C-alpha cells in the first residue's frame, strides 16, 4: 500500500527544481513584457479576475489600501498566520489551472524583478496581488518608462 505524500518531509530533486525555476522565470518575463506594452490597469489576467479580486479583498481587507499591495512583506506572508490565511484563500481557486504552481512576484511594485526584490509564491497569490496592483494603477508606470 502506498504511503501518503508528506510534503513537509519530501526530498527536493535538483532537476525538478530547475525546471520549475525556468518556468517561473519565463512566466515573469512574459508578464513584464505585457506590462511594458499595455498599462496594467487595462490588463485582464484570467477569466476569474473579478472573483479573485472580490475574494482577496474579503480575505485581506488591508489590501483595500493600495499602499498595502504596493509593497509585500515576505516575512508576514510566509509567517504561520500568513500561511494559514493564504492557504484558505488559495484553496478557493483550485479550479484555476496551475493555481498552486510556483511563480515569481515582485515584492515592490516600484521595482523590476530582481534577486533581492522577488518572492516565490503560488500563482493564485501572484494573481491576487497583481490584479489589485493593476486595478489601482500601480503597474501603469512600466508602460510609460
UniProtKB/TrEMBL annotation:
Superkingdom field: Eukaryota
Matching entries from InterPro entries are given as: PBDC1-like_dom_sf, PBDC1_metazoa/fungi, Polysacc_synth_dom
Report the residue ranges that make up the Polysaccharide biosynthesis domain in this protein: 16-143
The signal peptide stretch is none
Q: Which PANTHER family match?
A: PROTEIN PBDC1
- Full protein name: Polysaccharide biosynthesis domain-containing protein
Look up and give the organism this protein is from: [Candida] anglica
Amino acid at each position: 500500500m502506498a504511503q501518503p505524500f508528506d510534503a513537509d518531509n519530501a526530498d527536493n530533486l535538483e532537476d525538478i527544481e530547475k525546471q520549475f525555476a525556468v518556468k517561473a522565470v519565463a512566466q515573469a518575463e512574459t508578464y513584464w513584457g505585457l506590462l511594458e506594452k499595455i498599462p496594467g490597469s487595462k490588463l485582464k489576467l484570467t477569466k476569474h479576475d473579478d472573483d479573485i479580486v472580490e475574494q482577496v479583498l474579503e480575505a485581506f481587507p488591508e489590501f483595500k489600501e493600495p499602499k498595502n499591495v504596493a509593497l509585500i512583506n515576505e516575512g508576514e506572508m510566509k509567517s504561520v498566520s500568513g500561511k494559514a490565511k493564504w492557504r484558505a484563500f488559495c484553496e478557493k481557486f483550485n479550479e484555476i489551472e496551475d493555481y498552486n504552481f510556483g511563480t515569481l512576484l515582485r515584492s515592490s511594485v516600484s521595482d523590476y524583478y530582481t534577486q533581492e526584490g522577488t518572492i516565490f509564491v503560488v500563482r493564485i497569490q501572484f494573481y491576487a496581488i497583481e490584479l489589485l496592483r493593476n486595478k489601482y494603477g500601480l503597474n501603469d508606470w512600466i508602460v510609460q518608462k
